[in-house]
Amino acid sequence: MFDFPPIAPGEPVRISASTFVAFRQCPDSALARLQGEWGPESRAAFSGGLAHRLFARHLSGEPIEGQDFGRVCRSEIGGSNLNYKLGALGLKPSELGRVIDEVGAIYERFKKIPADGFVGAEVALMVEPAESVTLVGSVDAVFMGDEGVRLVDWKTGELGEVVDQLHFYALLWTIEKDELPQMVEAVSVRTGERVTEVPDSATVATTAGQVADMVGRLRSAWEEDRGIERRGGPWCKFCGILDSCAEGRAATRLGV
User: Fold this and answer.
1) What is the rounded average pLDDT of the residues 217-232?
2) pTM (2 decimals)?
């Protein structure tokens, strides 16, 4: 549907939606993630991950009855990488119970969201637009309507800035399926907020250019053994390089 911009050769790189968003916020944060420097686990991220597992289960035809909710949650935790995150958080059994109660309240809201046209949950996308460049993403839910495909990303908190993530999913879908999605959405199950994008060829081409620029800057940084750029913001709180980042520490002190 379009020609991906040329990318200078270099080290293999695998870019996920979250890494792309991190780079758009703070390039050095994304660089650190790709080098294995991750920030601390958070309770919010853990509960959000658990909720997403339950959403996918529900949409795939396995709704959870009230009396089974705790058992199902513990089963989902034990059978996924959430078990490792639970260990990193060090939650006591009583604290885990409160997390499950909080997720239960979110799940009750989720059950009220219409699922007409649902065709897939946690749909994995992977494309290689250039040699040694892999783009990956997992779309929370795919719906089919009269006008085409709608990609949905569920959020369990406030939406925040989600447009870059939505555009990245639109890019992956366009490359892998050779067609534009009719719509990409982010929906907060907790608040009811919704951000909707209707991508066109120009949007996808712009995002492809941003990815190509990202790969070029990452490869240059690796080759020259240097950083790229640091920007402070609300994303700094759980950044893996916060302790060594003056911009990030300033942002967290100011509550940005």
Assistant:
1) 94
2) 0.93
